[in-house]
Amino acid sequence: MAQSFEMIIVGRFTIGIACGAHTVVGPMFLSEIAPVNFRGAAGTFNQFVLVFAILLSQVLGLPEVMGTTELWPYLLALCTVSSVIHILLLSTCPESPTYLYIIKGDRRRSENALVYLRGQDCDVHAELELLKMETQQSSTHKSNFFDLLRIPYLRWGLIVALVLHIGQQFSGINGILYYFVSLFISNGLTKQVASYANLGTGVTILIGSLASIFIIDRKGRRPLLMFGISACLFSLLLFTLTLIIKRVTEINKLTILSIVLTYTFLFGFSVSLGSIPWFLVSELFTQENRDAAVSIAAATNWLCNAIVALIFPQLVIYISIYAFIPFICVLLAVLIFVGLYLPETKGKTPASIEAYFMRLYGFRGTEVHENPTFADIIDDTKIEQPYMINLFACLCSNITDSYSLEMMYPK
Predict the structure, then answer these.
(1) Overall number of domains in the chain
(2) What one-character DSSP code corresponds to residue 13?
(3) What do you get for the CA distance between the two ends of the chain, in Å?
(4) Confidence band, pLDDT 50/70/90 cuts, at residue 258
(5) Range of 213's domain?
(6) Which residues form the Major facilitator superfamily (MFS) profile domain (predicted)?
(7) What is the CATH number of the domain that holds 233?
(8) What is the full DSSP assignment across 57-126?
C-alpha cells in the first residue's frame, strides 16, 4: 500500500479530517480543563508539542536517517505509536467540567471531574462558583454561525478571533516553513547545507514555544502578541531588504544574515501568533457560543493555510524576492488591530470578556460579577498528575498533525 498513490491520497484525506477536528476540539478542551493559572500555558503547550513533532519529523526525514524512497513509508507508520497512546490515555480522561456544568447542567459530575483533575486535597468549590456565575450570565441557547454574525457583541468577538487566525496564516510562516530549503538554495546554499539550516527552524520555534509557556500567564496575551508580531514584522521586512541588496551587490555574507532574520521571525511567531490564536478563542466566548466560534476560527485558519500554500509559489515566480511584502502588510495591520481592539484575557472569565464586548455596543445590564475568590484560584490551584495525563493524552494527537507529516515526505 505504501507504493499506492491512491492509498496515499486516502490516508492524507483521513489524516486531514482528524487534524481539522483536533484543531477545533483540542485547544478548547485544554482551555476548559486547565486551572485558571495554567490556562495560557496549557494552550501554548499544545503548540510546543506540535513544534516538537515538526522538529522530530525534520530530523527523521533527513536522507541520512529515514528520508529516502525506501524508508519514508515506515517513517509515516511511526505516527501510529502516538495515535495508540492518544487513544489509550484519552479513554481515562473525564469530560470537560465546564461542558458538564453549563451545557449538561450536571453539577455533581462536573465536581467529580474537577476533583479528579485537581486532586482530592484541592477545594474545587471556588471553580464551581465561577461555573455557576457563567451559567447565570449565559443563555441556554446554543449559538450557531448565524447568531455569531447577527448579534453585534458576538460578531465583534468573532472578528477579533478571525483577525488573529488570518494573521497567523498570512504572516508568512508557511512560506518560510514549506519553502525554506528551496528559498536558500536559490540564494546560494547547497541543498545539504540548506537542509541542515532547516533544522534550525524547528529548534527556534521549539525554544520560542517553551519560553512562552513560562511567560504567558505572567505577562498576559496582549504583550506577547504585540512583541511577537513586531518581531515578525521587522525581521520579515529586513529579510526582504537583504534579498534585494544581495541581488544588487552579490554580497554572499547576506545569506547568513537572511538565515538569522528567518530565525528571529520564527521566534517571534512562536511566542505569539503560533499558539495564542488557538486557545484565545475559547477565552473570548462563553460555553454556549464557544463551539461555533472555535469551529469557524479553525475552518478559517485551514482555509487561509490552503490559500497561502497555493499563492506563495506564484508570488515567488512573479515577484521573486518581493514575495513577502504582502505578508508584511498583513502583519502591520494585525499589529495595529491587536493594539487597538484585543482585550486582555489573562485571569478573566469568558463571561467577563463577553460583557466587555457588550459594553462596546452599549448593552444594558452587562456588569461583570467578580468572584472574590477568583484571585485565590489563580494563586493556589496546583497541577496534579491526573490533569497532566489528560494534557499529554490530548497533545499526543499533535504528533500526527499535517504540519509534522508534511516534513516527513522526502523532497
Answers:
(1) 1
(2) H
(3) 20
(4) confident
(5) 5-408
(6) 1-346
(7) 1.20.1250.20
(8) HHHHTSTTTT-STTTHHHHHHTHHHHHHHHHHHHTTPPPPHHIIIIIS--HHHHHHHHHHHH-TTS--HH
